[in-house]
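Q: Structure tokens for this one, please.
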Amino acid sequence: MALDNFCKSLKSECRSSLEVRHPSWIDEEMFNILRKYNVAFCISDTAGRFPYLEEATADFIYIRLHGSHSLYTSNYEEEELRSWARKIKKWGLTTFLYFDNDYRGYACQNALRIKEILGLV
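A: Here is the predicted structure, written as tokens:
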């Protein structure tokens, strides 16, 4: 599989993540390859536009939050942020969380708020 060859070429000293944008990528073989090379499956909230799964495939978690109601433009509500914080704590792994809902500065506001919820400030 091309994905296996690609992952094999990645430098092991760098952390890598794969964000899929088409449902045809979602199968057990893909997850097994990511696990084999310690590549994180990107947990991506895209307001339903692209596949959404919560699957840990590496020794870290990588999350991209593009907007839960409207892609790039929706503000995450308090309970949504608290839900993400609970998941992060439950996984118990180093987590990289990227907010891409930058319309009206929501990304910055949401990042600061989830840091507070997680007790990181």
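A few notes: The longest strand covers residues 60-67. DSSP finds four helices and five strands in the chain.
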